[in-house]
Amino acid sequence: MKAMIYHGPGRRGWEEIPDPGLVSPGDAIVRVDAVTICGTDLHILKGDVPEVEPGRVLGHEAVGTVMETGPAVGGVRQGDRVLVSCITACGRCRFCRTGMYGQCLGGGGWLLGHRIDGTQAEYVRVPFAATSTHPLPESVSDEAALMLADILPTSYEVGVLNGRVQPGDTVVVVGAGPIGLAAIMTARLFTPGHIVAVDPAAARLEAAKSLGADVLAGSGDDPEAAVAELTGGLGADVAIEAVGIPETFELCARLVRPGGHLANVGVHGAPVTLHLEDLWIRNLTITTGLVDTYSTPALLDMVAAGRLDPAAFVTHRYPLHDMEAAYRTFSDPAGSGALKVVLSRNGRSG
């Protein structure tokens, strides 16, 4: 089969490798029918995630068809169309029993494209398949379902829920890439008073506006002044960091009001200064997190019911074998206008 292989910082290749096989009784082999590229994959290629070893197949999001299952797999069977979650859960350990699947002690957590071969391939081995895949209703398209593998639960759990968004709140989202846009979409479920989107790219701010942001701060704007004007100088109730660089985290710390919440979602590859000399007196709550995907079933229900339309994030489509072209597009959002790219087994370019 063909797969996207990581060869160390800055190096990747779409190459022929052996098909995966069952290793454990709880495994499933899934034919990848649709896959996407995540900002985390770009962080890996920058060298920000040193745990990823050269030779690893990248990717942790997919929709596919179950081709084979181990004898311990229940709930899914050969021929089922499934969502492959970015997080693998043993379902039995202390953390899994409390819904913290990202911290799984039983051999799960963030495995795919991280500690084992991932989904940017023609086939993928999924450990603990009974608890790490979700059967999909016919009414949910591959593209919509694919957005539930990572970006929607990540933004919802690590951003909106950790940030304790409440009705009437002023919510500022710093970074209007796919994660930030998903935070805007899911924050609206709690009817905040204002959603402020901060991003230097005009195209991404337009996308933020279409998804529910009502105040935009772009290149040349002063987001601190915009938030102060909205809040009578108090600051935002919730600031969601959706980029993963020191400057955006420090901006969020300045934007949030005393007693407010700063929810960090971005993947950071460099140290960030925490200005406790300024923050200690302001009663802030700062949260971080790896997504657990406990919200995926509820989000899937909302998509099936027409309450959410995550397919709106998809801007570019490619056949699966055009992985290199898709990476070039996704890596240059300023030039391409890309939000999310989808590669499909029977896909098209556009």
Short recap of the structure:
The chain is α/β, with parallel strands linked by helices. It has helices at 39-46, 129-132, 142-146, 151-161, 178-187, 202-211, 223-231, 246-255, 276-279, 296-304, 323-330, 333-336; strands at 2-6, 12-16, 28-36, 62-69, 81-84, 123-126, 133-135, 170-174, 194-198, 215-217, 236-241, 256-264, 285-287, 314-319, 340-344.
Helical content band: 25-40%
The rough form would be described as: globular
Task: Give the number of DSSP strands.
Answer: 15
Radius of gyration: 20 Å
Largest sheet: 7 strands, mixed
Average pLDDT metric: 96
Please work out how many helical segments DSSP would assign: 12
What's the N-to-C terminus distance? 24 Å
What kind of assembly state do the chains in view correspond to? single chain
Could you please describe the fold and organization of this structure?
The chain is an alpha/beta fold and 350 residues long. The protein has twelve helices and 15 strands. Strands 3, 4, 5, 6, 7, 14 and 15 form a seven-stranded mixed beta sheet that branches. Strand 9, helix 6 and strand 10 (215-217) form a beta-alpha-beta unit. It is globular, with a radius of gyration of 20 Å. The protein starts with a strand and ends in a 6-residue tail after the last strand. The mean pLDDT is 96.
Key structural traits:
single chain; 350 residues; alpha/beta; 7-stranded mixed β-sheet; 6-stranded parallel β-sheet; 12 helices; 15 strands
